[in-house]
Amino acid sequence: MSKLLRKPKREEVSEGITLVHEVSKQNSDLKYVGFRVIDLVKGAKYVESLVKEECCIVALTGRINVTEGETSFKDLGTRDSVFERKPTDSVYVSNDLTFEVEAVTDARIVLCYSPSENQLPTKLIKAEENSIENRGEYSNKRLVHNILPDSDSTANSLLVVEVFTETGNWSSYPPHKHDQDNLPEESFLEESYYHQMDPPQGFVFQRVYTDDRSLDETMNVENGDVVLVPKGYHPVGVPDGYSSYYLNVMAGPERIWKFHNDKDHEWILDRK
Ligand SMILES: O=C(O)C[C@@H](O)[C@H](O)C(=O)CO
């Protein structure tokens, strides 16, 4: 099994709270990106105290209340399935604060983390504030919901985006990378991919590779899997009959998404 591919687990951490994924400094090679997927049964409460990390709480499916100190946001979340293809609500919580998520309905949340020392205000990122982009042509079409893009100063490090790729299409394509701390040409950003497919028995292929091929892995990714991208190009191909959703978390020393396309495949962009 690839070191970059993580299968979902179901670990009940407290009553009504199930940990589905956990990516941290302790269990991966990533230094800037942390990630949890948690299922909550209606009425369950998840409490976490952040230590030198900021967090973006994404109401992936179902409805939740989020409280940090005196601030409460009620009935967040907009969808029962990510494949409704509508943006959802998220909450940004800064380092060294404690937050609570309460499930109004059965819910799945994604917690995106990155190291942070500079406190910023807790902020609701409403679904309707996500900027929406239709990118690509031919079989390279995808729909993007920007939850925390680099143009938004809500966070210190975190970048969070949702991407929908329809049947037979490719995304993160032509292949690009962002693994050199060499601005303004390229930024260094680690990345995680949380994948879902519709219908759920589907699969996608994701390749993660470097120019010198010292890293070159092509993974069969199934519903609920996570792929870690510590470096390298990371295209995703979706087979006929299936639709793909993924949530990306990116973070690095500078909060700028400045990528570099694989020169061999950049011609894809120049087709008339
Ligand atoms: O295909 C897209 O446009 C999405 C990707 O850019 C994805 O968010 C990513 O690879 C970020 O580096």
From TrEMBL:
<comment type="pathway">
    <text>Polyol metabolism; myo-inositol degradation into acetyl-CoA; acetyl-CoA from myo-inositol: step 4/7.</text>
</comment>
<dbReference type="InterPro" id="IPR014710">
    <property type="entry name" value="RmlC-like_jellyroll"/>
</dbReference>
<keyword id="KW-0413">Isomerase</keyword>
<dbReference type="InterPro" id="IPR023770">
    <property type="entry name" value="IolB_Bacilli"/>
</dbReference>
<dbReference type="InterPro" id="IPR021120">
    <property type="entry name" value="KduI/IolB_isomerase"/>
</dbReference>
<dbReference type="GO" id="GO:0019310">
    <property type="term" value="P:inositol catabolic process"/>
</dbReference>
<dbReference type="InterPro" id="IPR011051">
    <property type="entry name" value="RmlC_Cupin_sf"/>
</dbReference>
<dbReference type="GO" id="GO:0102482">
    <property type="term" value="F:5-deoxy-D-glucuronate isomerase activity"/>
</dbReference>
<protein>
    <recommendedName>
        <fullName>5-deoxy-glucuronate isomerase</fullName>
        <ecNumber>5.3.1.30</ecNumber>
    </recommendedName>
</protein>
<comment type="function">
    <text>Involved in the isomerization of 5-deoxy-glucuronate (5DG) to 5-dehydro-2-deoxy-D-gluconate (DKG or 2-deoxy-5-keto-D-gluconate).</text>
</comment>
<dbReference type="InterPro" id="IPR024203">
    <property type="entry name" value="Deoxy-glucuronate_isom_IolB"/>
</dbReference>
<dbReference type="GO" id="GO:0008880">
    <property type="term" value="F:glucuronate isomerase activity"/>
</dbReference>
<comment type="similarity">
    <text>Belongs to the isomerase IolB family.</text>
</comment>
<dbReference type="Pfam" id="PF04962">
    <property type="entry name" value="KduI"/>
</dbReference>
